[in-house]
Amino acid sequence: MTAQIASFDPGRTAVLSMDYQTAIVSMYAKDPDMLARAAGVLRRARSSGMQVIHVRVGFRPNLPEISARSSLFSAVKNSEKHRQIFEGPAGDIHPALAPEGNDIVVVKHRVSAFTGTDLDMILRANDIGTLILHGIATSGVVLATLLDAVDADYRTFVIGDCCEDREPEVHTCLVDKVFPHYSTLMTAADF
Amino acid sequence: MTAQIASFDPGRTAVLSMDYQTAIVSMYAKDPDMLARAAGVLRRARSSGMQVIHVRVGFRPNLPEISARSSLFSAVKNSEKHRQIFEGPAGDIHPALAPEGNDIVVVKHRVSAFTGTDLDMILRANDIGTLILHGIATSGVVLATLLDAVDADYRTFVIGDCCEDREPEVHTCLVDKVFPHYSTLMTAADF
Amino acid sequence: MTAQIASFDPGRTAVLSMDYQTAIVSMYAKDPDMLARAAGVLRRARSSGMQVIHVRVGFRPNLPEISARSSLFSAVKNSEKHRQIFEGPAGDIHPALAPEGNDIVVVKHRVSAFTGTDLDMILRANDIGTLILHGIATSGVVLATLLDAVDADYRTFVIGDCCEDREPEVHTCLVDKVFPHYSTLMTAADF
Amino acid sequence: MTAQIASFDPGRTAVLSMDYQTAIVSMYAKDPDMLARAAGVLRRARSSGMQVIHVRVGFRPNLPEISARSSLFSAVKNSEKHRQIFEGPAGDIHPALAPEGNDIVVVKHRVSAFTGTDLDMILRANDIGTLILHGIATSGVVLATLLDAVDADYRTFVIGDCCEDREPEVHTCLVDKVFPHYSTLMTAADF
Hints:
The structure is a homotetramer.
Chain A: H1 3-6, E1 13-18, H2 22-28, H3 34-48, E2 51-57, H4 74-78, H5 80-84, H6 88-91, E3 104-108, H7 119-125, E4 130-136, H8 138-151, E5 155-164, H9 168-182, E6 184-186
Parallel strand pairs in A: 1-2, 1-4, 2-3, 4-5, 5-6
Helix pairs in contact in A: 8-9
């Protein structure tokens, strides 16, 4: 653990590990070391006393959470193939990053981890003001959750090398140019 | 089914059946016929094509949703006895009103069914604009959910004789004097 | 100032003075001393360093905030007479309770002071965790704002003799039987 | 007006014209024709019966909306120079794009137009389900508002050549690679 992590107040800090579900990992994660890096972050977060919160996509049977009007999600609702991404073992959090001990799991139905979930309630109930984000994809859950967190006055950090996107140039643009305006960028090694 | 129910557009109407959990029923429900009346409402709602949504209180292990500062809920967090109200069979929805078929279950951690849940998301995704409420207690989940629903522009109905409160005079005051300002009052027989 | 007020941390406490608008006062307030009591509360709050926040109903021209579907508010939208309640001097905060100095004014368009406003944002930005509520009517803005505040984990107090309702028995039932479940009741003299 | 605009239902569509404030325009807008293009969009929107909504940043005296903890906004709170960007004529909507007729103005205090405002309330009250977005900066209000709109199930369009960013490559990456995943891209000429 570096000097940097010592500057967090662990009791008021949460690591958000987002959308690391088995099918999503297999579709998006090209760097074979990313899971190991992310697993190391979770391990160090737990041992330092930070709250680990896993965010994952999930639905009730027949997906009542999804509008037929949603251009983004109606494909999931209407296509058996898309739906399978989030069902059964494919939809589980990847075993390398699975919940342990006092970790919390939040199930979401949209892009941002805050939309229609109890994430903000849990964070405030536990006086957590600092969020450390990583996940897949960079231009999906990470981007949307970061912007919501900033607008809700959380202090935010993003672990850039524990995020990945289908398009590498999008990942690079966001991590290098957009996220630094809103957040402090870190690497897994910094943590 | 009376003429009155014919005035609902069933595809855009949901019945919210709230906090009818076994321990809560045994603590609050004094009228032995209330469960049968409420069960009849759910049966007629399903057969007419309305969406039935069950709302219940529930927590993750160790109740991370609850703040130590909460005067209302910290007792649940800190007292084994209070916590048992919401755990295991005591916390299940009462068998007489249990979910069936395409019913939806929403788990909440506060008084209102809207606070920190995906209820509003589900209602909007399904173009549901009319809510028919009943539950326990009148001065708890029914009152708080009704006021949130009104402020979110839902058209609301309350089935007064399927609500109950620890204090009968509070129930009567709310149903007779407060709810009519915000909502249309019905009885189970009207439905 | 009594011993009781000394137990508040003034820098983290706000007094919410709600819907004390001239036309509303003239319609609802029957006790001629209520305005003087409420004015004393605001004066003592300011001198002790608490934040005073005035909440009032107001609309843009043509009331785009109001849905034609709203059974509660469409009368305001569609009736010139109802609309005048909230326009010009009739809609201003009553001169006896007018904003002063660093007081904040929040304009709302629904029943609860939290719905569609920046109230929660302002409270959190200023680390305010305790709210002291009073206003007109007891079964309107006070009830709805109290329930929202409780579900958002604010510590709440209601100054019962600075609230009033069109129906005295509704006021009494809420203040004596419903509010104590959610809040600590005070009188203006306690403050 | 092209064939494309004919596919909108004007009565259920709003154009969001965002953060086009005089000081922001002078800092960000490098293309001298952008204001004329955006003004044309507003003109055609009004004449076709769409609702034009202007979104702008603004604060009460002393900026109580801003937390001292906010890394993004505390500079505005604490620096006279930053604050002047949003005050007086500098903070007004640029005259070339000023509100007219039945246009609506929404004042915000964060990045997204939805955070802590009545925008969602106004849209829902008017049955508006389609949003056409433009504004400054691409990586600020446009990005954050788009993501919130998508998560709230609005159908969204972005007019790419009526958005601009301090960094042209960020603008290009977002408009070409990120926005198309969430939205339909248009040009002012398409509209």
